[in-house]
Amino acid sequence: MSTPSRSRPLLYLAFAAGCALSLAVPAPPWVPFAALPLFAFCLARKGPAWALGPILLLAGLSLGTLRAPGVAAGPLEAAIAAGGAPSFRWVRGQVLQAEPWVNGCRADVVADAFLDGDRWVPTSSVVRCYLPIAPPLPGARLEASLRLAVPRGRDNPGQLDARAQLGREGVSLTGTARAPELVKVAGAPGWRPVGRYLRALEERLLEDGGRSGGALLAILLGERGLMDPSQVDALSASGLYHLVALSGFNVGLLLVALALLCHSLGVHPRRRDLAGLALLGTYGLLVAGQPSLGRALIMAAIFLLAQLLARPQGGLLSWSASAALLLAWDPAWALNAGFQLTFAATLGILLLWDAYPRWIPREGPWGGLIRLHWVGFAALLATLPFVLLTFNRLSLLGWLATPLASLPLMAVQALGTLYIFGAAFVPGLHQALGWVLDMLTRLFLLLPTWLGEGRWGSLFLPRPGWGWIAAYAATFALVCVPGRARRVGWALLTFVAVGVVVSPVLFPEEAPSSLAVLDVGQASCQVLRWGTHSVLVDAGNGAYRGPTSGRSVVEPYLAAAGVGRLDGLILTHWDEDHSGSAPDLLMDLPVGFLGYPATDPPREGVSSRIAALCRRRGVRLLPLARGGDLLIEGTRLRVLNPPLHSPESDENDRSLVLRAEPPRLAVLFTGDLERDGERSLLAAGPLAPTPALVVPHHGSGTSSTAAFVAAVSPRLALFSVGRGNRFGHPSPAVVERYDGARSRVARTDRDGALLIQGRRGLPLWRMRDGDWLREERDP
């Protein structure tokens, strides 16, 4: 039975789909034989080529089951899990890979033994380590004292499941070494020239790249650990972060630069493609530890091979063959956001390339620039559902800015390729190239910095309903069909796209009164909702490196809950663990007002930055003091503390204390109030018993006095506290005090995020029992 060339992409896709489905439907090895009768029948009758589809689908299902990664719990994982909290252990193992990171390096280590008492216990665990040393060579032996922890699962609705993500990479534990003296590295066996060259190249690039050294590591080698946080914020807010997330786009720029060079030199296309394969192979040796770039290199190599072999439908053939090959190697890549975006964008470009409107210029400088924008537009259309479901935001200007930002970036990659392939070690030349790369990188970052500061750099959106996603997929398919169907598809696609942005949830329901205490570690953040209104009390913590809890916890929760704007953001005080994520939330979300204690106007540090951002974004600043109650659409927020002229010297005791009274629910928020503040609060007048209390100061022993607990007598005492925190919160004496008052106690460190609703019996949901956004059942 012959297989027409036009059917081959579909057959590759059938195999790839089987590999991906194996993650949800494991299959034994004999399953492909179930399709053999159908295959034999079609072969005897000279049936259609698509008859190969079922057997390839089942073959992919079986192979995917064999290849799907799994993390087995060994002795080391069992020892850490038994303690219920992070613990220190001496570990021995071999380095798999390492890259520069803030204050040292990040390395994946295969641990083969750990110290238990006075004996070494054999184990087999992959640990992601953060070490205060220079990156060791792959293959090096390492012995270190690490603070080990089991990766956290999804403790908040909508949040990324870090444990599952690391598990798909084979990582079972994370560990941190506190001092270089606690890490011992023995040299890697053998010469390992590539690893040694990469380490020397990283050092030279950081030295020659000046202020742009961290960004150059990301652009040229895919190592983003040393990027300046302000650069990361600007790229994220502008929708241009994909330009430094080294992947298919960057490989494409590299090949475009090579093609331009070959064209100017008059090189034959066949030799150009062979040179491209050699370039990809050499580049791949240096960046072998970057999965996203490795996938892109394989995809590009298959495309060049298809051109060299003069295969028809080379684009779709290489796209589908790449998907089949990559998913056969690791089926878990199907769940990787980078994999999804790369393949969706490439497919969109392939399918919509010939849909370029005839009435738009094609030739000349303007035609070339418009065609570049058309490529970006096609990629945007194909990736839109993935972007909204994964990142909860849409960059309105990113696709327009991408071609403009790509011009200096292409120059960076062209000169950077020369630099990393030897020029970095030529005296005199490496300093000159480093200076030029620094200047070009700064030029490249000007556009995302400008866009990121604007209001329309990116737009936060609640998660669209599956009805919108299905409608969008159907209309996008129509656009890919030439003729009249395409014209109808454009009209329908425009309607659906506007609908997704204007009303992501087709039939929004008014939410009952509820309070969500989000798990933001040793910090505080609560979401109060009623009807169509939402108020955030405290914003969680910031982060020196990586996403803040605002972007990793709060925004995913709001998006999953269908909340697109906040009526208000109230900060009980300015401490980082209560206000650290406020700048990110103010940049990303429409916010009506920002409330803060009137006794502590914003003067310096994070408070000054937040106030400046509010003025720039048009958010009303609202100082609050006792007696200055808020009324928001029928719900009263009574301000009980601080008085306008507070005698308390400690900022904690000047924390805002609010009693919120949405329909059928009453909640008391107390910030970091301590015993002096509690005494002042009680002296101001009797406190009414409270159905729900967010416990003061994370359950510190310096708060929740017996008099305060007796006066409030909450039915629910909710502790916002970090797992295994260094302060020992909550104090056992404080927990016992609430138990004695017959309060139901719930803690984010043990229960994950918490939810109560204004219903009979005041039901409580704990995230540990399941995602309440999908499953609301009485406890």
- Number of β-strand runs: 23
Query: What is the mean predicted local confidence, pLDDT?
Result: 85
Give the termini separation.
60 Å
In the sheet with the most strands, the strands line up as 14-13-12-11-10-9-22-23
Structural class: alpha/beta
Helix content: 40-55%
Secondary structure elements and their pairing?
Blueprint lengths: L7 H14 L14 H9 L7 H16 L7 H9 L3 E15 L2 E13 L2 E13 L9 E9 L12 H7 L4 E4 L6 E4 L6 H16 L4 H9 L7 H10 L9 H18 L3 H18 L4 H18 L5 H16 L7 H16 L11 H28 L1 E2 L3 H23 L8 H25 L5 E2 L5 H14 L4 H19 L8 E7 L8 E6 L1 E5 L11 H12 L7 E3 L5 H4 L2 H7 L4 E5 L7 H13 L2 E5 L5 E3 L2 E7 L15 E5 L5 E3 L5 H9 L8 E3 L11 H7 L3 E4 L12 H9 L3 E4 H4 L2 E4 L6 E3 L13
Parallel strand pairs: 3-5, 11-12, 12-13, 13-14, 18-19, 19-20, 20-21
Antiparallel strand pairs: 1-2, 1-4, 2-3, 4-5, 4-6, 7-8, 9-10, 9-22, 10-11, 15-16, 16-17, 17-18, 22-23
Helix pairs in contact: 1-3, 1-12, 6-7, 8-16, 9-10, 9-11, 9-15, 10-11, 11-12, 12-13, 13-14, 14-15, 15-16, 17-18, 21-22
